Structure formats: C-alpha cells, structure tokens
Predict the structure of GTP-binding protein.
Amino acid sequence: VFIHKIDGLSEEYKYETFREVRQRVQDELSDLDHGDRSVSYYQTSIFDHSVFEAMSKVVQRLLPQLPAMEALLNKLCSSCRIQKAYLFDTMSKIYVATDASPTFLRDYEVCSDYVDVIVDIKQIYGWHHRHNSQEAADSRPASEDGSSQDDGQGSAGAEIGESIVTYDRSGDTYIYAREINDHLSLLCVIGKGSSADKRVLIDYNVGILHDALLQVFRV
C-alpha cells in the first residue's frame, strides 16, 4: 500500500494518517476473511526518491532470484568492506537487490542519481557500442581458413569500464559503478576505512560477481 503526498503533512499528522490508513486496510481485509494476510506500507513523496525505493521493495518480492543475488552482494560487501551495494535496473532506477546492511535514503538517492549519469553516457560508453563492435566483427572479411580477420584492436575497446568518483566533500566516500549487462548496473557505496584504495581487489571481486549474476539469470 502506497501512501502518497506525505510531504505536505506535519510529523504528528503524518503518523496519524499512516496509522489510520493501516487500520482501515486491516479492517477491510478482516471483513473479507483475509485478516491474516501480510501487507507492506510505504510513505512516498514526489520530492525525494521514496517512490523508487517503495517500487523497488515491490519488485523484489516478485523475483525468484532475489535470495541468490542478495547472497552474492553480501559476499562482495564483506570481501571488499563495501558499505552498501545495490543492483539497479538501469532504465527504471529501481534496485532489484541489495545487501543485508541497513538502507539509508541518502545513499540510495546518490546511487540513483548516478544511474542517471550511466544512462546519459550509455550511447558513448555503453552496450550500444559493444553491439556495434560485434556487428563490425561479423562483417569483417573471412580469411582462407574461415576465421574472421582482426584489425588488431580486438573487442577490448568495447568493454564496459568501472568508475569510482568522490561525491562527499570530505573525500571519504566513493561510488563504484559497473554495468552488469544491458539492463543491470552495480552501484556500491564505499565509506571511510574501506578498501577503496585497493582498486585491484574490488575489480577482481566485482568481476566474479559479474559472472555469477549472469549465471544466476541464465539458470
């Protein structure tokens, strides 16, 4: 149940409204002999990312792969001392999975805004060029033994690169972003005292996560 436009209410009236809506829904379910049903309630506003976060919770309930994805993200966070990890649907900005650590709206908002950046530069550095590279490879003339000729550049130029940027003025917090495939992006919040300076370790573990996630969805 989504309770919209809570931004226009005071804290006291917001709580009363939430309690009233919850009670009315429970009464309606009881009248229909469904009082034992579990119902989730989300307070949303158009002035923040609460709608996207609420929709994320709904979508996660529909994914049979959710336990496997959460386990992989938990392992990544523990291995690299990552503060928070999200797996986003790139186009909708809904996160389909996250690790078990507490979710803070500020971290989610920053990661969600960073997904916008990924979408904006997707035509330059994204999967569109990887597909074009594959089409170009398919169109290369074949050699006498049947293999296609390479121009020496290979497909490395079409690979998706990771990025790590500072979004906190103190310089203690970073965002690590990597596209998993054409639809999913991994966003990690790396806080103070983490292994943000150990880029090779993070790249290695994210590479393993990348392959594991592709295997999960392939199954």
In short: The CA atoms of residues 125 and 173 lie 24 Å apart.
